[in-house]
Amino acid sequence: MTPAEDRLRGRIAAEGPITVAEFMAEANAAYYAGRDPLGAGGDFVTAPEISQMFGELVGVWLADLWLRAGRPGTARYVELGPGRGTLAEDALRAMRGTGLEPPLDLVETSPALRRAQAGRLPAARWHEDVSTLPDSGPLLVVANEFFDALPVRQLAPGGRELRVRFDDGRFVRDQADEIVEDSPASLAVVRALAARLAAQGGAALIVDYGHERPARGDTLQAVRGHAFADPWEAPGTRDLTAHVDFAALADAAREAGARAFGPRSQGEWLDAMGIQLRAASLAKAAPERTEEIAAARERLTAPAQMGRLFKALALTAPGWPEPEAF
Ligand code: SAH
Question: For 97, how many CA atoms within 13 A lie in the half-sphere containing its CB?
């Protein structure tokens, strides 16, 4: 039995069935706390781990907004769920090229991943959530595959929230004819971020997999060792994610005072940001890597790969310029 299974079973025995959101929160906290799940030897691969081009273009996008806003104040680089710190390293290198060297604030709850990040980004400061981010100076924020890991509620028609029991040696979710999901946890983070952008200036780029409009259905899934797995089995040993509802995030951001742009598919966004030129210049500098670079670009942008399912949503402070590539 995994420690997370033990805790969840104890809780259900004491309090009765728990919500899907509670199950997901507990399972993912345990999952991320003890491991680095990224890369070929782990459970899944993310865009920044596929190629440096991804983080570099994120850095260029943020720096461009800051430059066109008139280089205001001490801008900070903020990342939510920075994984191995790869995206931050690539983005910061690209930012330095434009004369921007922001201090780093990382929102990360996993002790194992904080250690990995500290090895590469020793000057960073860490936060448990967005509430403790510094309250002055513009925030240049990025979140890649962060929101998909936050808990979702699953609701039956009529609004009954689905729960999870432990029966006959396994976790079982309530039956429902139809399932609708929402993620109050994600909306709370976006509202807090948008309010900060409105008050302090700045912009945010949210990249994740999901749908443009609210979709019906059960999107909760588990991934382990690069394959789909049963989300209700062995909690804490597999990554639980759900599709991100970009329209809901954009609405929440607007209500909290920010402007929202997109979502746009990751492939279109990377193309508009000039990934083709970046790939060409990398290949010119390292001709022996030409094929590998082309393959990485294809994986990030092709509709049949990550290009369409993954989407980018931009948030900006009200007085800031319109973002590039939206
Ligand atoms: N952005 C990275 C990692 C994605 S994995 C990349 O693209 O490679 C999800 C990341 O979010 C991990 O760093 C994980 O530890 C972090 N995370 C998950 N739930 C979190 C939460 N509730 N609060 C803060 N960080 C969280």
Answer: 13
Q: Mutation test of ligand 1: which of 28, 52, 109, 266 has the most ligand atoms closer than 8 Å to its C-beta?
A: 109
The pLDDT tens digits of the residues spanning 241-287 come to 999 999 999 999 999 999 999 999 999 999 999 999 999 999 999 99
Q: What is the SS3 assignment for 16?
A: coil
CA-CA distance, 288 to 69, in Å (whole number)? 39
pLDDT, tens digit, 9 for 90 and up, residues 200-210 = 999 999 999 99
- Is the CB of 88 inside a 6 Å radius of any atom of ligand 1? no
In 3D space, the residue among 245, 175, 253 whose CA is nearest the CA of residue 212 turns out to be 245
> What's the average model confidence in pLDDT over 179-195?
97
82 lines ligand 1 (CB under 6 A): yes
Say if ligand 1 is within 6 A of residue 109 CB.
Answer: yes
Question: Identity (one letter) of the amino acid at 99?
Answer: G
Mean pLDDT for the stretch of residues 184-199: 98
